[in-house]
Amino acid sequence: MAGCKAQHPPAAYLAGLEVPAAGSEVTMEGVRYKMNAPKDVDPATIRFVEVDHDKCMACGECEYHCPTGVMQEVTEDGYRGVVDPVACVNCGQCLANCPFGAIHEEVSFVGELYEKLKDPDTVVVSMPAPAVRYALGECFGLPTGTYVGGQMHAALRRLGFNLVWDTEWTADVTIMEEGTELLERVKHGNMPLPQFTSCCPGWIKFAETFYPDLEKHLSTCKSPIAMIGPLAKTYGAQEAGVPAKKMYTVSIMPCIAKKFEGMRPEMNASGYRDIDATITTRELAWMIKKAGIDFTSLPSEEPDPALGMSTGAATIFCTSGGVMEAALRLAYEALSGGTLADPDIKVVRTHEGINTAEVPVPNFGTVKVAVASGLDNAAKLCEEVRAGKSPYHFIEVMTCPGGCVNGGGQPLEPGMLQSSLFKSTITKINRRFTRRSVA
Ligand code: SF4
Ligand code: SF4
Ligand code: SF4
């Protein structure tokens, strides 16, 4: 552990930092957060978003964008509220689309995270998602979709994270696992088809709540963050020479639903809590500003070894169709025994609606796939499966329109979120990986 700490000594700004008290409220990047880091509670009983009736103008936008119908009128004046936390998938689309900033987050680990960063006996580990690095720059005046992965790693070190690991590492693992599972289902029929993706916690809660009979169609793979949490406290702890019990793992996500996922009771495969805290892109941006870090002047830095490396398949997880595209690359090569001439399978990329494709695979036949952006579209595909009429082998579902780049925890830019971020981001992802050589 000493070696690990020596690499990243406590950041100087922490000495004078006033830590927000539990229960206090802090506005970060335009959204109000309650400092509330729940422990040992069933997250299905918690409201992660709620409406401030002093600010609500009863316009109904939140209800319109809510994919489950759980955001409803709760007063005669038309004020909205989350009527049942069990049916809320915590996607935050209500918050992202409220034109009056009337919806706030009820769970924030930022106060607790500061306590851990200040504690010299705790090894704080960062695990940022692919989509964070395409949105964080916006909070510092950079154009929408600018890739700032290297500056993000540098900022995490300057914030005092002792180990800068990266969830893109396990996005690659997810592809290997999910693609292999699909091959098993296709070749051996040991589990039913179609196989649904399982990396989006909003979708998983939706399926568990509204389509529990389709459970066997969900991929058995954990999401990337649910894989890197336990890997950090087992393999990673061993590689870094750090006792797992001293680690505090921080999931950094574009997503409010990932707070729910990190708190799920079964997330303890390492023998400890696999994910100790989850923060959003907005909260990370606020922490960087509060530390006085000049983000745009930071050098580009690599993540720490052991759980840091990744490929282009990992980063496209952040857009609708990305998981499908990466899994198809694997399935194509495994089923055909050949190599794809062009790894870009653009036909599955989508930012709205349902996109379907038939991919011819030599020595196999045709792989039929569907990509659903948004839960209303996912529901249509679920109804087909339930009726035994689904023609697909593999279905990707992302709760947020266009995928995680438009997640409920991303910087708010009303009027732009729905599609411009997606389009500019997919272009930049491709440019980034055209330039980059992967060892
Ligand atoms: S979108 Fe905002 S202002 Fe409009 S009803 Fe919902 S909470 Fe109220
Ligand atoms: S978080 Fe999502 S599911 Fe929950 S009320 Fe808001 S829009 Fe609806
Ligand atoms: S699409 Fe991404 S950001 Fe949206 S709920 Fe799913 S994982 Fe979270």
UniProtKB/TrEMBL annotation:
The lineage of its organism: Bacteria, Pseudomonadati, Thermodesulfobacteriota, Desulfovibrionia, Desulfovibrionales. Its EC number is 1.12.7.2. Gene3D superfamilies: 3.30.70.20, 3.40.50.1780, Fe-only Hydrogenase (Larger Subunit), Chain L, domain 3. Keywords: Iron, Iron-sulfur, Metal-binding, Oxidoreductase. GO terms for molecular function: ferredoxin hydrogenase activity; iron ion binding; iron-sulfur cluster binding. Residues 47-77, 79-108 form the 4Fe-4S ferredoxin-type domain. The keyword Metal-binding applies. NCBIfam families: FeFe_hydrog_A. It comes from Oleidesulfovibrio alaskensis (strain ATCC BAA-1058 / DSM 17464 / G20) (Desulfovibrio alaskensis). Pfam families: Fe_hyd_lg_C (PF02906), Fer4_9 (PF13187). InterPro entries: 4Fe4S_Fe-S-bd (IPR017896), 4Fe4S_Fe_S_CS (IPR017900), Cytosolic_Fe-S_CAF (IPR050340), Fe_hydrogenase (IPR009016), Fe_hydrogenase_lsu_C (IPR004108), Fe_hydrogenase_subset (IPR013352). The keyword Nucleotide-binding does not apply. This is Iron only hydrogenase large subunit-like protein.
